[in-house]
Amino acid sequence: MTTSHETSLPTCELGPGGPIVSRLALGTMTFGVETDESVARRQLDEFVEAGGTFVDTADVYGDGASEEIIGRWAAARGGVDDLIVATKGRFAPPAGSHGASRRSIHRSVDRSLRRLGLDAIDVYFVHGWDDFTPIEETLDALTSLVRAGKIHHIAWSNVTGWQLQRIITTATLGDFVPPVAVQPQYNLIDRGIELEVLPCC
């Protein structure tokens, strides 16, 4: 059984209508690769003990190992109802499909749910732009998964300003579920979001 705790970290709403999360998230890209399971579990425990509530992973992190580690940790602690779990899909499509196609997204979500041991993904990020799939198809697939209760919120990673605007405009005009967040690449060298993504947001 999960235990409730008083968070010591500031929280915020993740976009309009999005979940309330700790302002710091725990990224798990190294789980199952550079970070073995025992260390990963300790990091998860310490993050939650410090008041963290937002855990971020992806289907390609460790070839699915990151999601599996989080799933086993979640089962051992009695669930993650007190946390917000985000994962991503796009870069590991099944043979015969593009990454953000309907077929690929549905399969990616089902596999992530199995590995994480969840009934629904709190925030599902499309892990990048797909030049080969119409954005209407991607948004339609995501909307159907939200309506089916497999995803609570959608979001995007690694998109430019014009791509994000296209996503938002298409969602609005097509009556699709809109994204609540964007997770752009940002570091001391790559600061492009300051010029195009932030103004769009």
Structure write-up:
The protein is α/β, with parallel strands linked by helices and 201 residues long. The chain has a single domain (11-200), classed as TIM Barrel (Alpha-Beta Barrel). The protein contains 6 helices and 8 strands; from the N terminus they run βββαβαβαβαβαβα. It has helices at residues 37-49, 65-77, 102-116, 135-147, 161-174, 197-200; strands at residues 11-13, 20-22, 25-27, 54-56, 84-89, 121-126, 151-157, 179-183. The strands form 2 sheets. A 6-stranded parallel β-sheet has the order 3-4-5-6-7-8, with helices on one face. A two-stranded antiparallel sheet has the order 1-2. The longest helix is centred in the middle third of the chain and has 15 residues, at 102-116. The chain starts with 10 loop residues before the first strand and ends with a helix.
Query: What structural class should be given to the helix and strand makeup?
Result: alpha/beta
**What is the assigned CATH homologous superfamily?**
NADP-dependent oxidoreductase domain
Described by the principal axes of the CA atoms, the overall outline is globular
Order of helices and strands: EEEHEHEHEHEHEH
Q: Quickly name the level 1 CATH class.
A: Alpha Beta
Tell me how many strands there are: 8
Overall pLDDT score: 93
Q: How helical, in percent, are the residues?
A: 25-40%
C-alpha-based Rg, rounded: 16 Å
Unreliable runs:
1-5
Strand content: 15-25%
The CATH topology annotation reads as TIM Barrel
Sheet with the most strands: spatial strand order:
3-4-5-6-7-8
In the CATH classification, which architecture applies?
A: Alpha-Beta Barrel
What's the main sheet like? 6 strands, parallel
Number of helices: 6
- Number of folding domains? 1
Distance between the termini: 38 Å
